[in-house]
Amino acid sequence: MAYESKGVTDFTGALRLLSTTELSADDVFDEAGGTALLLSRDGDAKKWGSRWLGQSGLQVTVASDPANGLDLARSIKADVIVVDAAMSDAGNRPYFEVLQEAADVTADVIVLCANNSQIKAALMAKVFDIARKPYNWQSVAARAYHSLQIKNRNVSLAESKNALKEALELANVAREQLRTNQRFEPVTGLPNKTKFVDLVNRAMSATDKNGGSLAVFVVGFTRFRLVVEAMGQEQADKVLAEIGRRMAACVGDSNAVLDHSPQGLRTAAIGILDSHRFGLMMTVHDEDSLPPFQQRLLENLSRPIQVMGQVVHLSACLGIASYPQDAEDVDQLLQRADNAMRDAQSRGGGCKYYCADTDRAAARKLRIEHMLHEALDREELTVAYQPILDVASGKVVALEALLRWQQADGSFISPLEFIPVAEESGLMLRTGEYVLERACRQFAAWQSEGLGLKHICVNASTVQLMSSSFAGAVQRVITECGIEAAELEIEISERGVLSGDTEVLLQLQELKGLGINLSIDDFGTGDSAIAYLKDLPVDALKIDRSYIAGLTKEGKNFALASAMIALGQRLDLTVVAEGIETPEQLEALRELACDCYQGFFAARPMEPDLATEFLQENRRF
Questions:
Q1: What is the pTM of this model?
Q2: Can you tell me the distance from the alpha carbon of 472 to that of 516, in angstroms, rounded to the nearest whole number?
């Protein structure tokens, strides 16, 4: 009978039952259904251990030679391994240490110890399930049984979590289907895409009859996907509802102004096209009335939104196409307005009217997105490395990893072109992790050669910092690559870190908690409040190259560089000057006591082999 049937539900109770002489293992254990490996040369251990483990419901394999112990554990997929502490491998290492370090062996290990020194060795190896000679095999079997039950419950829990995840995904699908089937979107109360398309069709017919033109807006936002990820769908829905209210208010104000005029806006409607894009259409008889309205709309939508104590900053992107000037039917009209919106999105926000170049730009982005998917799958992206040197000594202290994408014809697609596409298409997390992993593995290789680098620098986009999984991904990569957290420096653009976004600041704090170094890249190019700088957990400041170009020992550039270096050093930050191309610029940095520099004067970005040669030469310098 199972020990639960006697009212005992804990491990201590199971042992108490086992110590009762009139009970057999069958009285104590349910059918465990797992596998056990017993590694021992002791005859009594093999006899009684296999008996009690077998009667506890485990399928037992006994071995006396540790030489093939790992292979045996893998082949039988052992759930529990009972090993004699006296057994060792060919290098005289205790075999329980070998089992503990085998990444593909997940069995719980119980160590049979004959004396205190063996117990101490097991504890030092972080093996805490220990049996002391003379062995109570009833107790050992109970512990093995209990270990397997915990493992089975964990598997069951994982399966339940996966089932719940699938159920939530199905619920989201059903939710989207409900939105599609209804004429009005339930969160905002606005017409859904089907209804909005119908309204646009009617307005186009009215335009054909009455003259004038019809302006259609597609309204998107630069980071709405990240808002959903960071806040959850429920809070994101509240943001959507507020956006809908602001758009309706803006349209209402415009119509009220124009009601008394025979010219201007006559008909307007708003709809929601999908989970993060809105549509707006209006008839226009006076083209001069459109720019003031679009500016007012842009300003209203770009104001911060407060939801449950959190402040959400979104950059609105407006794409505008007109009928009959830009399109012949509703699908073409919406597509061209959407292309214009995506063009505005790639520029960081604002308003963009459709033109022929918009279509070409949209087609180019779609092609780059498709090619980027393939490049990641085929591992065609490469990483180049540019050294960062100490200004005073000229020694290399770090290298910055820079992503490169070479085509079959030898040409390169610039990161300035494909990184925004990766951010918009949801590929940035995968792309960023691709670079991070390769850079950390290369750094580990350089460290093994004793090249004396302090750290490796890897860029991270705001999209990555807005992801709640970013810090965890960084920790996993450095662990797998075998480098210390302090040997990695994450570079973040100034616009991203000085914006005050709660999600970004939380990720920075989490990264800093891991021991990762942080630096602000392109400092001086952002337009956000510099007051945030004193509260950021950063270690370094990289002055943008625009302040270094033309730098000499006098003039405005010298004064600006001097102020930035002093600011960084007063905040106990390492200051790095970017874009050093001449000896005069380097000499000016020496006079300003700048900490480090990088640029073409020292070296251009190099492939790993050339970077290795550079490091070896610099070390001899």
A1: 0.53
A2: 12
**For residue 452, pLDDT beyond 90:** no
In this predicted structure, the answer to whether residue 213 has a pLDDT above a threshold of 80 is yes
Cis peptide before 324 (omega within 30 of 0): yes
Crossing angle of helices 330-346 and 356-378, rounded to 10°: 70
Burial class, 126, CB count within 10 angstroms (exposed 0-12 / middle 13-18 / buried 19+): exposed
Cα dist from 118 to 38, 131, 479, whole Å: 18, 11, 30
- DSSP at 28: H
Query: Cβ neighbours of residue 238 under 8 Å, at least 6 residues apart?
Result: 307, 308
For residue 575, count other CB atoms closer than 10 A to its CB.
26
CA distances from 36 to 53, 76, 131, 459 (A): 8, 8, 16, 48
Spell out the long-range contacts of 403-406 with Cβ–Cβ below 8 A and sequence spacing 24 or more. 403/431, 403/435, 403/459, 404/605, 405/375, 405/380, 405/381, 406/380, 406/382
Q: For residue 527, how far is the Cα from the chain centroid?
A: 25
Q: Are 316 and 298 in contact (CB under 8 A)?
A: yes
Are the C-beta atoms of residues 254 and 268 closer than 8 Å to each other?
A: yes
Locate the DSSP E strands across 210-364.
213-221, 265-272, 278-284, 305-307, 310-312, 316-323, 350-353
pLDDT digits (tens, 9 = 90+) for 99-116: 888 877 878 889 999 898
Distance of alpha carbon 309 from alpha carbon 580, whole angstroms: 45
Please tell me whether residue 413 adopts helix, strand or coil conformation: coil
**Which DSSP string corresponds to 579-618?**
---SHHHHHHHHHTT--EEESTTT---B-HHHHHHHHHHH
Residues 6+ apart with CB under 8 A from 587: 553
* Dist. CA 353–CA 367, nearest whole Å: 22
Contact (Cβ atoms closer than 8 angstroms) between residue 597 and residue 389: yes
